Amino acid sequence: MFRFHVKNFSKVNMPLWSAPCWLHGVPWVIKAGPITVPSSENENKEEKFLSVGLRCGGVWGAAFWACYGIVDLCLLPVNRKQAPYVVGIECLFQKNVCFGGVNRFMLWENVLNPHHGYIEDDAVTFEVRLRTAPPYVINWSSDRLMRAPMQTLAVPPPHVTSGRKDEDRNSDVNENGSDDDSDDEDMNKL
Fold first, then answer.
1. For the structural domain made of 2-174, what CATH number should be given?
2. Helical H runs in 7-161?
3. Which ranges of 40-112 does DSSP label H, i.e. alpha helix?
4. What is the rounded CA–CA span in Å between residue 133 and residue 124?
5. Is residue 50 within 8 Å of residue 34, measured between CB atoms?
């Protein structure tokens, strides 16, 4: 579990990235920011949502790596008596698809409305609860294939799907649990 506290949140106009949190020798980073999408009621109108996700920095220098993760993306309330807003996703993070998230996490105006209880002094706090095993890693060495001495990847059974469990929100997450592959380029510098 790790957190990302964002000040001056009402002024955010592009995705922000948290500092990395290291788990099993791999850096994990929270991404949060606004996204504008066509309205579900009127295609000529756009709606602004909070987009939240998690990026796995991967195993540097590995020919291939992958790890399956069960992730709870949370927006923490100001009042501890109020429950956090939580969306769960299941993702297979791997070398070429290392991001999982939700584009339509919450309406932007609802996040900014103090009556909903998630913002105070123009600041919000995100929390990620991640359950994952160490990554499965394959390294190339000379002419032969070498497997790194790490635990085997726990792959979900075939009936488990990635993305959120409620079907009306599955359109926000692609089949790999990713909301936008373009953000991966920004994070390849980890």
1. 2.60.210.10
2. 108-112
3. 108-112
4. 29
5. yes
- Asked if 31 and 12 count as a contact pair (C-beta separation under 8 A), the reply is no
> Which amino acid is present at 12?
V
Token digits of residue 75 = 């927006």
Domain boundaries, the chain: 2-174
DSSP state of 120: B
Say how far apart CA 164 and CA 20 lie, in whole Å.
Answer: 24
Q: What confidence tens digit (pLDDT) does each residue in 16-47 have? A: 999 999 999 899 999 999 999 888 888 788 99
Q: How far is CA 156 from CA 68, 92, 104, 110, in A?
A: 8, 9, 25, 34
Q: Is the pLDDT of residue 157 over 70?
A: no
- Convert the pLDDT of each residue in 60-87 to its tens digit: 888 889 999 999 999 999 999 999 999 9
DSSP symbol at 123: B
What pTM did the predictor assign? 0.72
